[in-house]
Every structure is written in structure tokens, then in C-alpha cells.
Amino acid sequence: MMTITHDMTFEHLIAPLDRKTFFNEYFEKKPFVIKRENSQFFASLLQLKDIEAALLADDILSKVNMRMVKLGDPIPAQDYIQIEKVRNVEIRNKLLLDEVSRLFNEEKATFVLEQTKSLWPTVSHMLSSINEAFCCSSNTNIYISPPGACGFAIHYDSHDVFVMQIAGAKHWKIYNNPFYLPLGIHNSLPFKTEDLELLYDLEVEAGDTIYLPRGFVHEASTSHDLSAHITAGIYNTTLAKVLSDYVISLAGREGILRESVLALVSQYEGSEADLLAKIGDVLTSSLDMSVLRKSIQQAVRKDAKSPVREIFKTEALIQ
Question: Could you give the C-alpha distances from 232 to 74, 116, 259, in angstroms and in order?
């Protein structure tokens, strides 16, 4: 059993794997589930009592986005948040705790806190460690589901995900990827579950970790226990993004990239091969490894700047 430290890092998150094994065997290749049989493994990172304190704060709605969902469908915010309109601008004034409790306990709705990295220093520290490991940006969402609930329909994400189960348990099914490393524009592409290979079908308990490369299909539901987990979304810089930025930058000094396609096709009518060759020369003449390395350095610099007991009836879990 690994010793818990106050400052959880990327290395703690993937233990007992080491960094080299993770990047060689799993990163953008396949999921893993780490079963620890240690319900207190994430206790120094975040506990339900910490979330309770945040929900009771008067300014919580100014710090994070909050929503409730059921079977993949969002519940209207006005059902559980006091909203005021000022000059056609909606201001979220107050969380209606009684309604949150009713939706959670009676309607079996999942409660979601989004973009929570600034709420707790321990979570922020862990994300900094993740950002250093991946040369990326990241953020965390928190999901709390009642017993017998399914918050989201079967789906896949267009970013890598680490799931940290901090309380209770959740049953996960993880399938293979119908699309190789999808981008955000691919989220609406349909897939057939019956065509997918089932990779994992198991109960994830407090202290366990899941890694999901983007594109791997998954679904999760609770049975007899409440579930609370943190999801860290990893937003890696893709080659498509680097090349897109590179072309835009290059257009500042290469006039052909600023011309309309209509004018170019008309100008080179009958000599399309010459046009394609010219475009290729322009795009590759300044392209070298420094373009890729610069994106990694920029990601590192960017990061450098860079109540549950009452609501969810979780006395036993908050002890």
C-alpha cells in the first residue's frame, strides 16, 4: 500500500505504474484501471466534507459552474439555482439546497461541479504536476451520484481523462475506441455499442484510478452506494493545432496564404500541379522541429502563470 502524502502528484495518481511505463504502454493507446483496496488513498486530495464546505459558501456560484443531469439530460438550472435577470444578463445568486437535495435523493440526479481547480490547493497542486508531465493544460470536474443512478449516457470524450474515486463506488463499463484519438469536432459521430469490444466491466471503489485516452467509450452507474469522483481532463496539444497555428503565423509573411482560393485556382488553371507544388514549398520551407518544441515550451509557460452531509445524506461517508 502506497503512503499517502499531502501533495498528491502525477506519480501518485498512476502508482504503482511509473512514468516511463505509462507513456510507453498506455498514453493515447489504451485505458487502465488501478484497484488499490485503500479507500483513504485520495483523502489528502479531497473529501466529501471539503465539497460540503464549498457548497455552503455564499460565493460558490461565482467560482465554479454547477449543473445537475439525469440519464444524460441536463436539469434546468432554475430548478435548483436562484437566478436573477439584470439588463438581460442572468446572474446566478444562490444554490437552492433543498431542491438540490430533492433532485439528488428523489429524482436520482447527478450533481456536477465544473472547472474546480482553483477551489482547493491540493487539487491545483496535482494538476500542476499533471501539466508538467504532459506539457498540457488540465482541469477538474467533480461528480456526485446517488445510489441507483446513471448521470450520463454511454459516450466518449475528445480529451484524455483520469478518474479518481474519492467516496463510495461506481460500476464502469469501458469499451474500445470507434475513432482513433478524436478531436472536439468528432464528438457527434455516431457509434454502435454492439460493435465495440468490452474491455472492463467492474466496480470502481474509493481509492481507485481510471485512465481513459480520448475516444474510448464508457458508461457508469451506481448501485447501492453513493459515488463521488474527480475527473481530471487532459487537454494535450495536437499536431493539428500546432500546424494550424503555424500556417496562420506563416501567412503574415507569405502572401499566397492570404489569397482567396478562387483567385489561385483561376490563376493556375491548367497547371494545378504547379500550384500544389508552390503551396507545399511555402508550407514546408520554414517547418522544422523548433515549431513542435515551441508548442511544448509554451504549454509549460502557460501553466506557470497559470453541504454534502445535509444535501446528499452521507453521514457514514463523511466520517
Answer: 21, 10, 42
Where do the structural domains in the chain lie, given as residue ranges?
10-44+114-236, 239-299
Q: Which of 34, 40, 44 is nearest to 14 (CA)?
A: 34
Distances (CA, A) of 105 to 88, 108, 110, 310: 33, 6, 10, 11
* Torsion angles phi and psi, residue 296, rounded to 5: -70, -45
Radius of gyration of the chain (CA): 23
CATH-assigned architecture of domain 10-44+114-236: Sandwich (2.60)
194: which residues sit within 8 A by CB, 6+ positions away? none
Residue corresponding to grid cell 475513432: 179
DSSP 228: E
Strand pairing class (65-70; 73-74): antiparallel
The span from the CA of 77 to the CA of 90, in Å, is 11
Write out the chain's pLDDT in tens, 319 residues.
Answer: 334 445 899 999 999 999 999 999 999 999 999 999 999 999 999 999 999 999 888 889 989 999 999 988 999 999 999 998 888 888 888 899 999 999 999 999 999 999 998 899 999 999 999 999 999 999 999 999 999 999 888 999 999 999 999 999 999 999 999 999 998 877 778 899 999 999 999 999 999 999 999 999 999 999 888 999 999 999 998 999 899 999 999 999 999 999 999 999 999 988 999 999 999 999 999 898 988 888 777 766 565 544 555 665 554 444 4
The pairing of strands 110-114 and 209-212 is unpaired
Of 187, 188, 160, 191, nearest to 178 (Cα)? Answer: 191
Cell 440519464 -> residue: 71
For residue 155, the 8-state DSSP code is: B
Cβ-contact 156, 215 below 8 angstroms:
yes
Global pTM?
0.87
